[in-house]
Amino acid sequence: MIERRKQKEGWLMEASSGPKRKMEPGKPLATGSLNLRMFVGTWNVGGKSPHDGLNLRDWLKSPAPADIYVLGFQEIVPLNAGNVLGAEDNGPAVKWLSLIRQALNSNKNGQEVPQYYNNTAELKHSSSPQSDQQACIKPRLSFSDLLSLEDELGNEDFERLLNWNSKLSSSEEASPSPSCTSAGSPMQRHYCLAASKQMVGIFLCVWVRADLYKHISNLKVSCVGRGIMGYLGNKGSISISMTLHQTTFCFVCTHLTSGEKEGDEIRRNSDVSEILKKTRFSHSCRGLGQPLPPESILDHDKIIWLGDLNYRLAAGCGDTHELLKKNDWKALLKRDQLRIEQRAGRVFKGWEEGRIYFAPTYKYLNNSDNYVVQTSKSKEKRRTPAWCDRILWKGEGLKQMWYVRGESRFSDHRPVYSLFSVQINLSNSNLNKSNTSHKSGRYCPGRSSASSVLQSACMAKVQAEELLIIPRAQSYIHTAPRLP
After folding, report:
1. How far apart are CA 372 and CA 363, in angstroms?
2. How far apart are alpha carbons 469 and 370 in whole angstroms?
3. Which of 255, 194, 90 is nearest to 460 (CA)?
4. Which residue of 153, 309, 333, 420 has the lowest C-beta tally within 10 Å?
5. Is the pLDDT of residue 228 over 70?
């Protein structure tokens, strides 16, 4: 009995000591990878609190149901002195969480999937930005388009798309197949809130498929203020760090310095540099034999940077308005400050961004499809349209499937979103998942009503190391919105 116990203890020590693990008899070590889909969205909502009837399903639908949703907002509260210097208003954050939960877990989720596949395929092969904005979308996918999507989809999703495409061969209308919304469809999944954090008007939340929830560990949050006096939270970043199986992720939601005066792009570059330098994830302990989790943004395997980056069009372009009227995005993008600064190596060196086929996302008249600059009668401050809202990424195993904007008139910005194919490392996950899930004490609740959003939000708590000037005793706070 004693000898048997020693053998068992010896195996456990080796099993937690890193790469030199012995396999448990009858349970081969997992050494493969898992391909997931991740939806990333960013939206500056202009200081407006969402109303109960706001439809987020049009924003959250994608070519295929995602496994992870990363949603970042800017200006969820007005950026006035009361909100910047006073107590944080968590009311809008709670409303956004409730609406997102309803949209993700509604039976209508994913009902128009085929139409979005079609949009993606057309964007890949269109010859000009103008055709992407104005030309009619062909309802049926070509054989080559179908093959390009096969690797990104599961077998059932791909077969459903094939069936839908064949039905459209004799039809001229691109209506979705009824089978996409049938009961029990794999597209109708349940999602849990993994983490959320607010800093004044910036708000970031991460939702994951229910069965993936138990495989998440090392959730940490870091905030960097870059606003008034260089450190207040009206501008800056929220970063969420997490480990899924054996792959580390960092999601950085930012609202950078505004303005279109000459030299403002330098201040935005400085914001990025300071965020990268000051963002730190503190880890007081680690599991036996486990590597230390990432401490900085660039330490992670996969990084997504999203938000209102506020980069504008370079000044001194007299024909900007003519190019805007022609929807000549390609010509306008040559003057995009972010691309200019990135090419010069002054910001986001080594980062990637997808090709932009959509119109500038800022600044629109209230409840209108017209830019502020398009009317001389507007009392709004004149702004040259620009691609302020962006999504960038860094790391191997990330492949962007699409990059588009939404058309909601809710604010003076249009939302932007992207879908990624993500390769997850499964090595050694079987040996570690019991430890990570039990130690974290987290669990995913069953299907819940919208009224339970406050309770479920409180289940997704992570510790936050705030990089603001606040007392040390207050620096460790929960990321779930606080009750009023």
Report:
1. 6
2. 41
3. 194
4. 333
5. yes
Q: Measured over all CA atoms, what is the biggest interatomic distance in the chain, rounded to whole angstroms? A: 89
Q: Give the pLDDT mean for 446-463.
A: 41
Query: For residue 336, what pLDDT is reported?
Result: 97
- Asked if 118 contacts 136 with a C-beta cutoff of 8 angstroms, the reply is no
CA distances from 166 to 118, 121, 152 (A): 13, 16, 20
CB-CB contact of 192 with 207 (8 Å): yes
| Long-range own/partner contacts, residues 260-269 (CB < 8 A, 24 or more apart) | 260/312, 260/313, 260/315, 260/383, 260/384, 260/386, 262/315, 264/310, 264/312, 265/311, 265/312, 265/337, 265/340, 265/341, 268/309, 268/310, 268/311, 268/337, 268/347, 269/341, 269/346, 269/347
* Cα(138)–Cα(358) distance, integer angstroms: 18
CA 169 from chain centre, in angstroms, equals 35
Structure tokens at 288: 């036996």
Residue 268 CA: distances (Å) to CA of 49, 264, 274, 413: 27, 7, 10, 19
pLDDT of residue 26: 35
The Cα 362–Cα 338 span in angstroms is 15
Rounded-to-integer distance, Cα 482 and Cα 5, Å? 48
DSSP 103: H
C-alpha distances out from residue 384 to 254, 309, 375, Å: 21, 15, 12
Higher pLDDT residue, 118 or 93?
93
Q: How far apart are the C-alpha atoms of 297 and 305, rounded to whole Å?
A: 10
- Give me the residues paired with residue 247 across strands: 244
Dist. CA 413–CA 368, nearest whole Å? 11
Q: Report pLDDT for 380.
A: 59
Task: Compute the Cα dihedral for 470, 474, 478, 484 and give only its sign.
Answer: negative
Residue whose token pair is 């090709």: 355
Q: Which long-range contacts (CB under 8 A, 24 or more apart) does 347-351 make?
A: 347/268, 347/269, 347/272, 347/273, 348/272, 348/305, 348/392, 350/394, 351/305, 351/392, 351/393, 351/394
What's the confidence (pLDDT) of residue 169? 43
Residue of higher predicted confidence among 129 and 40: 40
Rounded CA separation 418/387 (Å): 15
Distance (Å, rounded) from C-alpha 77 to C-alpha 80?
9
pLDDT digits (tens, 9 = 90+) for 197-213: 999 999 999 999 999 99
For residue 389, pLDDT over 90 is answered with: yes
How high does pLDDT run on average in the chain? Answer: 74
* Coil vs helix vs strand at 119: helix
Q: Show Cβ contacts of residue 430 under 8 Å, excluding neighbours closer than 6 positions.
A: 27, 29, 30
* Per-residue pLDDT, 109: 42
133-137, 185-189, 303-307, range with greatest mean pLDDT: 303-307
Q: Give, to the nearest 10 degrees, the angle between helix 155-167 and helix 113-125.
A: 80
